[in-house]
Amino acid sequence: MAIEKMKLVRTYGLIDHLDEFIRSCCLSGDFQPENAMDYISGSLGYVPLNEENPYSSSIQKIEEIASIAGVTLKDTFKGDEIIFDADEIEYIDTLKEKLSESFRKRTEISDKLAEVESSAEQFNHFIGIDVPIEELLSCEFLKVRFGSIPKDCYPKLKAYESNNLFVFLESSVDEKSHWGIYSAPRTEIDEVDRIFASLYFDRIRIPFSTGTPKEILAKLNKKKKELTSQLAEIDKQISDFWAENSEHCEQVHAYLEVASLAFDLRRYAAKDSGSDNFIYVGWVPKSSYKWFKQQIKNIDGVSFEEADPEDEKRNSPPVKLRNKKPFRPFEMFVEMYGLPSYGGVDITPFVAITYSLLFGIMFADVGQGLVLAIGGYLVYRLKGTKLAKILVPCGMSSAFFGLIFGSVFGYEELLDPLYHAIGLSGKPLSVMDSINTVLLLAIGIGVALVIISMCLNIFCSLKNKKVGEALFSTNGVVGVILYATLVCAVVGFMSGKTILPTGIVVTVAVVCILLLYFQEILIGMVDKKENYLPEKWSDYIMQNFFEVIEYILTYFSNTVSFLRVGAFVLVHAGMMMVFSSLAGDEYSVGGIISMIFGNIIVIALEGLLTGIQVLRLEFYEMF
Fold first, then answer.
1. What is the C-alpha to C-alpha distance for residues 172 and 181, in angstroms, rounded to an integer?
2. Percent of the chain's residues with pLDDT above 70
3. Contact in structure between 153 and 202 (CB atoms under 8 Å)
4. Are residue 408 and residue 310 in the same domain, yes or no?
């Protein structure tokens, strides 16, 4: 539960050693560079390094080569065994030129193939017409149109046949349309076109060809086979060519990626305009400081000096969380919410414990919990997904609370022999028989977590030397006392028992409310802030009146929100009861299949919803 301590280092040396320094110290992730110009005086004659990256164009060319080959580049770089020089640049250019030529030929063939397929599809609709196309298109006194009429409009065509203006010759019929041609005298074609347009005739313009549609289609299918064969041959050439060059090309690309990243880091340096010296400034974690010193010793002509973050007032050090291995997956949630300030308190362990605890309660089932834990572990190992790693502790927590609630994949009696063996008459807590108990426990958990969160806020404020915030804020000492007093009052009222005398409750509540009412002034006095007194007392009194009401409502809403913990416990049990009822005999083949299907739905759907709701409780109710 700590934030990594940092050291500010200023590195000096000859510009010729800058690349060696960056490769040795800046690529490991243990050095956070800063713009050196922000840390030195402008009068010293230093200027920033503004250079064009010499590796970018080569990287782009290799990625274009991979795109042409239709492959994804793999990182196969294993060290500095590649010397990137003019020969390598020429190799990349030659490789791209050869593949580009093959790709150009492939594109031409693909375009021709698409054209042939389109023509074949068009002529296929007219194979019922045994008349050469060239004769139809070259008529002196007639015009011919090719196309289709929707099936629901085809019967209406009969109404126009009596005017003897056109002839429609049907060639084929499919699910939606009647395909064919209509012809009309050239002098009447405009009128006939309007008639067929009203019938939603979909005209197509077929390419000029010789022969009947059937003969043309045969020629097109033959051409299609030839083009498909040529396309396969080109693809094989590209695949073989890439196979011959892929290993070296991928190694060069991986090397260039590293070299490009290292070169981009040069922009943080500052160069002395009057000499060949450079300054490089950055932050090093305290745990990596010995490693950094050793790396500098191995570089000739480079030295450094260190400084503590407290000595640097203009720039804040970066925040790096440092947690034990079980808590590290939950750093993602803390980063999502917002990293604490340097020197603050890392809440990752608290988030990890409370998130796993609440998830386990809301998704309590031994079998489903183990499935989540095992599935999350496998996905993390195979895919490296960080979110999947969080499922391991959450799944184990679900399995633990599943033992308390007595549920294994929705089967409520499987654990009865275990309970009897340890001397229990049955499951420790039957959810559906203890609804009020479940909801009250959920509220109790909420009260405890809210108070712990407020105490954590007090600790953070004190650590940051904000005593006023720790004492008088809504989440400070006054807030804790008021919240605890109100909880005692509500519990006493609901149970009919006196937790605290009414006089004490009223007195403490009134005093705390008054302190919260004037908290801005009190915090300003204690923390010695400037201009803490209000400009207009009338506005201050009116505004704080509503803010105090909002504070009390927030306490209430934050507490009531934890009812969702109990609600999800009941929903989980209820959903499995539904699938159990649908299964009938749970131990029959059909019943087992039904329960498997039900468990898959519950794990996928409710598991997702539970994760979201717990995260909401963490972000909105506790922080």
1. 10
2. 97
3. no
4. no
Q: Read off the pLDDT of residues 384-418 as tens digits, 9 standing for 90 and up.
A: 888 899 999 999 999 999 999 988 998 888 888 88
pLDDT digits (tens, 9 = 90+) for 413-453: 888 888 888 888 888 888 888 888 999 999 999 999 999 99
CA distance 199 to 154: 8
Q: Which two tokens stand for residue 134?
A: 């060239």
What is the distance of C-alpha 417 from the center of its chain? 44
| Distance, CA of 499 to chain centre | 48
**Which residue, 248, 283, 318, sits at the end of a domain?**
318
**Cα(173)–Cα(325) distance, integer angstroms:** 69
Q: Is 364 helix (H, G, I), strand (E, B) or coil?
A: coil
Q: Give per-residue burial for 159-193: e unless 16+ CB within 10 Å, then b.
A: ebeeeeebebebbbeeeebbbbbbbbeeebbeebb
Classify the C-alpha dihedral 383-386-391-397 as positive or negative: positive
Q: What is the pTM of this model?
A: 0.73
Q: What are the CA-CA distances from residue 400 to residues 360, 369, 370, 434, 572 (Å)?
A: 7, 8, 10, 19, 15
Residue type, 453: S
> From residue 377, how far is each of 360, 385, 393, 604 by CA, in Å?
17, 10, 10, 16
Q: State both tokens at 77.
A: 């770089």
Burial 612-621 (b: 16+ CB within 10 A, else e): ebbbebbeeb
State the residue range of the domain holding 8. Answer: 2-49+269-318
Same structural domain for residues 557 and 610? yes
